[in-house]
TrEMBL record:
Residues 277-286 have a biased composition (Basic residues). GO terms for molecular function: ATP binding; helicase activity; hydrolase activity; RNA binding. This is Activating signal cointegrator 1 complex subunit 3. Residues 25-192 form the Helicase ATP-binding domain. The gene is DHX37. GO terms for cellular component: nucleolus. The keyword Cytoplasm does not apply. Residues 260-334 are annotated as: Disordered. GO terms for biological process: maturation of SSU-rRNA from tricistronic rRNA transcript (SSU-rRNA, 5.8S rRNA, LSU-rRNA). Keywords: ATP-binding, Helicase, Hydrolase, Nucleotide-binding.
Length: 756
């Protein structure tokens, strides 16, 4: 029996999913696999685990598992469900990559999908669990897809056992055919239960113009306008990354300061009075509130022009100059306005859980809540009281080069489905408004849905993980959406060349060869590699790193290469002459430091990798402070991530091999000359196919090959990136970490492979 508070009980009863409890529980009882669809906020994540618990699925030693693609959701949802059920977090717990609070009393366990995948490696039948809920399946994260594929096989295996396993797949958008119509995945299509949602109408306002770059500035102006002119209600802003989120938060807090003291009744009255006065003085004409369409939630405004004007957009162009809005008045915007406190909170994946939890609390009285979030607020978390959504239309995504497998983060347009999800966040508690900072024409060009992640990235790490689970014929794996055959073949070939998979037997015909290649079993080396949470190339380096005391160095280099972009971008446009000078000075200093870190003698051959090693070493030696990082042009956040990853890799290495016992050394001394030689070999063992040869004067047929390199993979010339310490030296042969295409194709993370 669950003892909920009256307040919680009342809130629950408002959720549409509560009326469906019986239908859902019956379907789960009768079927091994059930798909549950409902709009974000309908109560899937918080309520279904409770239904299952109350129906006895979490009794004795049985656990209800819930997987989330994001760490932030796993933590937040476990806390929310514990609170709703009035149970401690020893009973309703979470487990994510670096931490957790699971105990021997745990009955409901929220975890990331990656954590459950690791558990399958230890116990393929997942015998601890009686039910597995795959949440947010619509996000189509690679691990979610793989888990669903694996569970489609585990569930039938468990059916013959004493304790059958139930699988519940929960999804927000209604594009579930990949799960239900895929006969290879589920020969018997699972029943689909749709939960109606209590969605209030959301009026969508498009911008007339789409800002080219400064969508963050556009967000700022929009928040100011809404806060000054529109009735109470939370504002939710979607931006793309943590840095942007923080910068907008700072700017807004400066413009609408909230003192932090709890506002007394008197002060509240005062501030209301101030607000009245403010409104009177600024608004000579009554504010035109946007028309709310109560009957129709439409993503497209009927008449764009009208909606824009009603949203207060028109003022910017003409008579509204007294409103102190718009670009030209940005200085005035920055002037603090104490009469209108705005309670501004950031929200993104890496934010500490206590900080994240703040968005769920009501803001201090007399203030308006404004949450500036990344994509995490799109579907995983429902923030109460949001009435206005500002959607920049962008998302930060990883992109991969098909040829080289090289990845980079880029900001790109979202899909129409995402835009509609974002808009929907405004209509959870009352009718709302969504301001899209792009035109309806641009919206029309968005993809309808984003492609599942698995089709957009190389899959060598997944193939290795699967082989580690003894799935030899990866092509036959029941993917909800399979990766391309090319991607699978490329992955298998790379893993064979790294020694992680057995060489296929020599066969005559090419077709047979390809077939044989796609079913190579894993080797002992491959098993070791599979235990490291990094790309197989780097895992290979780690697996070989034990010799000659090189492991701490290899761990550091691998962590740095995995985190990427250690150095600040200093080629940015300066706002003033003064700043230009400052950046120039910093650049010179960073260059000097890089030369020092690059070492002397043979160490110099390690090039950029030696710089990474030196930078991490110096940073740790100085105690890893934001100041040290700033002085030396290093990104503090990257250095912190490297520290965490080094810790994790060190733990993994120690657990694999009890005789090495290495530890994280903050006073790591530079490698000796002979260690440098070994390090160069170890690097080659993972990046052996990433080699390039400089084109000499005599063979240069075209100007475009000046200072260029030729790689076996590409027809076109590639170059050493100007930020590399080897940029001036241009060694004849180099090995590189990755190629990034900007104005040219540039190699990054370059080492020389010339003989000493
Ligand atoms: P779904 O998984 O269907 O998107 P949830 O179960 O996450 O829906 O949320 C259901 C409702 O519970 C939301 O509409 C929200 O109002 C409320 N809710 C969820 N998490 C919290 C929280 N941490 N604090 C307060 N309310 C919450
Ligand atoms: Mg949910």
């Amino acid at each position: 029996p669950v003892d909920r508070t009256a307040e919680i009980q009342e809130a629950r009863l408002k959720l549409p999913i509560l009326g469906e409890e019986q239908v859902i529980m019956e379907a789960i009882k009768e079927n091994p696999v059930v798909v549950l669809c409902g709009e974000t906020g309908s109560g899937k994540t918080t309520q279904v685990p409770q239904f299952l618990y109350e129906a006895g699925y979490g009794s004795d030693h049985d656990i209800i598992a819930v997987t989330e693609p994001r760490r932030v959701a796993a933590v937040a949802m476990s806390q929310r469900v514990a609170l709703e059920m009035n149970l401690s977090n020893r009973v309703v717990s979470y487990q994510i990559r670096y931490e957790g609070n699971v105990s021997d009393e745990t009955k409901i366990k929220f975890m990331t999908d990656g954590v459950l995948l690791k558990e399958i490696q230890k116990d393929f039948l997942l015998q601890k669990y009686k039910v597995i809920i795959i949440d947010e399946a619509h996000e189509r994260s690679v691990y979610t897809d793989i888990l669903i594929g694996l569970l489609s096989r585990i569930v039938p295996l468990r059916q013959k056992k004493r304790k059958p396993l139930k699988l519940v797949i929960m999804s927000a958008t209604l594009r579930i055919e990949d799960f239900t119509e895929n006969r290879r995945l589920f020969p018997v299509p699972p029943p689909v239960i749709k939960v109606d949602s209590r969605q209030f109408p959301v009026t969508v306002h498009f911008n007339k113009r789409t800002p080219l770059d400064d969508y963050a500035g556009e967000c700022y102006r929009k928040v100011c306008k809404i806060h000054r002119m529109l009735p109470p209600g939370g504002i939710l802003v979607f931006l793309t990354g943590q840095a942007e989120v923080h910068s907008l938060c700072r700017r807004l807090r400066k413009s609408f300061p909230y003192s932090g003291k709890s506002v007394t009744k008197e002060e509240e009255d005062d501030s209301q009075e101030a607000m009245r006065k403010f409104k009177k003085s600024k608004h000579k004409k009554p504010v035109n509130l946007p028309k709310i369409d109560l009957d129709n939630y439409s993503a497209m405004p009927l008449d764009e022009g009208d909606e824009d004007r009603e949203a207060g957009e028109g003022e910017e162009d003409g008579e509204g100059s007294d409103l102190e809005l718009g670009d030209e008045a940005s200085d005035a915007d920055e002037k603090p306005d104490y009469s209108l406190p705005l309670f501004v909170l950031p929200l993104y994946s890496l934010l500490a859980p206590e900080q994240q939890a703040k968005v769920f609390c009501p803001p201090p009285s007399g203030t308006r809540l404004c949450v500036v979030a990344t994509n995490v607020a799109e579907t995983s978390l429902t923030i109460p009281g949001m009435k206005y959504v500002i959607d920049c239309g962008k998302v930060k995504k990883r992109f991969y080069d098909k040829v080289t497998g090289v990845s980079s983060f880029r900001v790109d347009w979202i899909s129409q489905a995402s835009a509609n999800q974002r808009a929907g966040r405004a209509g959870r508690t009352e009718p709302g408004h969504c301001y899209r900072l792009y035109s309806s024409a641009v919206f029309g060009d968005f993809e309808q849905f984003s492609l599942p992640e698995i089709t957009r990235r190389p899959v060598e790490d997944l193939v290795l993980q699967m082989k580690d689970l003894n799935i030899e014929k990866v092509v036959n794996f029941p993917f909800p959406t399979p990766p391309s055959a090319d991607a699978l073949i490329a992955a298998e070939e790379l893993l064979i060349s790294l020694g992680a998979l057995q060489e296929p037997p020599k066969v005559g015909r090419l077709k047979d060869l390809q077939k044989a290649k796609l079913s190579s079993p894993i080797t002992a080396l491959g098993k070791t590699m599979a235990s490291f949470p990094v790309s197989p190339r780097y895992a290979k380096m780690l697996a070989l790193g034990k010799q000659h005391g090189c492991l701490p160095y290899v761990i550091t280099i691998v962590a740095a290469m995995t985190v990427r972009e250690l150095f600040e971008e200093l080629d940015r446009p300066a706002a003033s002459d003064e700043e230009k000078e400052r950046i120039k000075g910093k650049k010179a200093r960073v260059l000097q430091m890089q030369r020092i870190w690059a070492g002397q003698g043979p160490a110099q051959k390690l090039g950029d990798l030696m710089v990474m090693l030196g930078a991490v070493g110096a940073c740790e030696y100085s105690g890893l402070t934001p100041k040290f990082c700033d002085n030396n042009g290093l990104r503090y956040k990257a250095m912190m991530e490297i520290r965490r990853l080094r810790g994790q890799l060190t733990t993994t290495a120690n657990s694999l091999c009890s005789d090495i016992q290495i530890f994280l050394d903050s006073k790591m001394s530079p490698p000796t000359e002979s260690q440098v030689t070994y390090l160069r070999q170890i690097v080659m063992s993972g990046l052996g196919d990433h080699i390039a040869r400089r084109i000499g004067q005599e063979e240069m047929l075209d100007e475009k090959w000046r200072h260029a390199y030729k790689t076996p993979l590409l027809e076109d010339p590639v170059f050493i990136h100007p930020s590399s310490v080897l940029f001036r030296e241009l060694p004849e042969f180099v090995v590189y970490q990755e190629i990034m295409e900007t104005s040219k194709m540039y190699m990054k993370g370059v080492s020389s492979i010339e003989p000493e």
